[in-house]
What does this fold into?
Amino acid sequence: MKCLLDTHVVLWVAENSPMLSDIAKAAILDEDNEKYVSLTSAWEIAIKLGTSKLRLDGGLPEFFRMIDENGFHTLALKREYLLNVSRLPDHHKDPFDRLLVATAITEGLTLITIDENIHKYSIHYIW
It folds into this structure.
């Protein structure tokens, strides 16, 4: 399975948070699964750090370290993702989550997220 990790999932993996569901943990620990993190998540982290909505010792470089240390692959932004965002139904107001949904749809990825609004989209997701 090819998985796209939501921003909070990357942070929770790094801190071994009990917030991660057993299904999410199993998917992330399964070495046969390919795990991806969108640069959309890094953008979200950068904005939240800049507005003091998030505190992360080491800042954005620490977020990239988390990605690298866990063997996650990064996905750059593509035009197709943005085109798909414009076609999504308005089930979610968060622009970062909408972009992650569009990315998952475009690339055929299973989104790993706790977000309750994701089930409203035609997307594969687990939690």
The first strand starts at residue 2 and ends at 5. The longest helix spans residues 95-107. The radius of gyration is 14 Å.
